[in-house]
Amino acid sequence: MQKPGGHNPGERLDDLLHSVMDWNENATHNQQDGHQQDESSKANNNNQPDQPYGESKMSNKSKSNFSTSAFVTTLVSAIALLFSGYSFYETVLKQAELKIYPPALVHMYRSTYRDVFAIPLTISNDGAKRGTILSFDLKVTNLDTKDTMNFDNLYFGNNPKDTSRIFTPLTMSGRANQSEVIMFFAEKSGSFFKTTGGVRSNLRFELTINAEEAEYLFKPEKKTRLSFDMTTGFIQSFRQMEQGSPTVFYKIPKEQTEATKQETPAKSDTPVKPDDKTEKPLDTETDTKPQ
Q1: What is the pLDDT of residues 122-169, one digit of tens each?
Q2: Does residue 163 contact residue 155 with C-beta atoms inside 8 Å?
Q3: Fewest beta carbons within 10 Å, which of 25, 108, 174, 208?
């Protein structure tokens, strides 16, 4: 039976249900589209440089490797610079460094009533700059009598009879060495020895180089000095030494030096007290009185 108005109630209910279902489907589609847009916007904001994760990790690793290689390169360059500076100083800037070496033998002569020593010397310059030796100062000490005497370097040569070369300053180039026999004459007449023949004697030679001062800021603080001891067991007569027959001095053996040190008694620091039992000198006044 159809109600007045010309509409069927069942048809109206079906139309209402279809409209509700259509509205629900539309709402669901709109909600899903909104979630997708939100996720895409967040991804764009978080990954502002549009770069995949693997590529960013590779770039960070390459940056760390570059910093390590740069540090190693800088360190190697600094070490090479230091070695170059040291080499430049040693080969170009280093001032003259003179050294003298003790001889194996020393010959003693006599000339114009004075002692003369012929000393072979080897001189080396370990610096890069030129060095000039102006003169030598020689002081000789007799270790037995403690007498000392100063000597002047006057000639080059083996003995006073062969003194054709007068002493002149020695110029030493950088990294060079030179050997010469220098004649040293005593500044005053006389001799260390009062007796000749089979007499053992020990001498100490103290040699000092007087060198040209450096013209630069780096000047040597101390003079080059050399001290060495020589001994002999036989002294030629004065006449033979004046005629050219030398007294030969040679190095003191180490065994003899150690034996001498052991035989030398040690000095006591405690003062020695006088003995009360020692006899006192007699009183001269009481002894001279008449009885």
Answers
A1: 999 999 888 999 999 999 999 999 999 999 999 999 999 887 799 999
A2: yes
A3: 25
Structure tokens at 222: 């101390």
pTM for the structure as a whole: 0.62
